[in-house]
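Cross-check.
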Amino acid sequence: MVETGSLVQVEECRTFGRAEIDRIHAEIQQVYKSDQKPWVIGYSGGKDSTTALQLVWSALSALPADQLKKPIYVISSDTLVETPKIIEYIDESLERMNRAAKAQGIPLSAEKVKPEINHTFWVNLIGRGYPVPSTQFRWCTERLKINPANSFILDKVAKHGEVVVVLGVRKSESATRAQVMSLHRIAGTSLSRHSTLPNAYVYTPIEDFSVNDVWTYLLQAPSPWGNNNRDLVTLYRNAQAGECPLVVDKQTSSCGNSRFGCWVCTVVNQDSSMEALVDNGEVWLEPFLEFRNYLATLQNQALWPQIRKRKRRNGRVIVKDGVAQPWGPYTIAMRRHLLRKLLEVQRAIGAAGTNENGTLINKRELELIRNIWRTEENDWADSVPEIYAEVMGTNLDWVRYESPTFCAADLELLESVSVHHGLPAAMVAKLLECERKLNSYMKRSAIQRQLASIIEEDWSSEHIDNPMSKVSE
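Predicted model, tokenized:
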């Protein structure tokens, strides 16, 4: 089996002899027994990580029970915006792994790692107004993939002192990958030093495999946790795509040219894997594809004056030829529009019964977006519950603010008063919101610092009278 471009095809290929499999198993066993470092195995559900995990599992299951002393943690990164078919496959696989490990007496546990609620895709895109990811501003990989995986690894380092991270990466994937793998190799061992995490080491048991080797092994060796590897072949063929590996450093490309990952990805021009899944009968994914394609259109700079603010989130403005540029976050109106469109997709898939819990954005994310809009965008009308009720036809048990809050009528009054006194209404609103939020603080200096920070923001109009006071391009 080989990959031609992104398409998986079955061809005549070599088989792994017993001697070769025994050699690989022996190396894995030797590395496992050589120290007391627990293992953290990255599993993305794709062909490479599946091959690495299957080899490790088979090798260790051949050891006597008294030699299986070190814990093995299998982690899979769930960005919360994974392609639904992929995350369904991963969830089923992790469940099978935990059952099989317990039954076989292997000290292995499998779980997903997720981004912190403050850093999820929707909180950043809809809440803070981050522009959709692009090759120039790829803010998603670190927040959604690298940080959750590294946080798990560092937690195990704190508990055990050192860990070995096992990854299904191959030198033949790219010259850069081969160079990075060789650069950190510890002489005389099969381990490498992790490029960024202290007391973490990396083991790559399939580093010398080719794509042919990977598929050959998977079709020839049954899954020790009960998966059918031909289901994985079918998934690849239907999606016509490569995989997004578990990413633990910035040197590892999160997806490259593959699209076996996040359904909202706008770094690539076309989501060929989602289109292929729809063409192969998964028509319920069409609302996902349509929304993803809409997000991709927002990279058109001609739209930015209408959908993006001129002030950056740090309060500064970038100036070109004396005119403030629309290079800030999305406007609050655009964020409301995006939330409405996302909930429409959620309603569509919920009605079709295709999503287990019927949600693409959870209540915690909605509450955090609601708070960000209120404190940063003066959304005193409390738009999130209103939009949710309009689109979903129901309501949630929203958090009730205990301290006095402002409403839409208060904002109208504030705007009229501010105009009369020649002050930016948005600035005054932020000052009032800051004072309200911090009114229980014992140390008034904290309030004074935040009030000063708001006042120091750039509250100029679109055309700049004094460009020297702004950030030049």
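Residues 1-13, 245-249, 462-473 have pLDDT under 50 and may be disordered. The two ends are 51 Å apart (CA to CA). Passed to J.P. for a second look.
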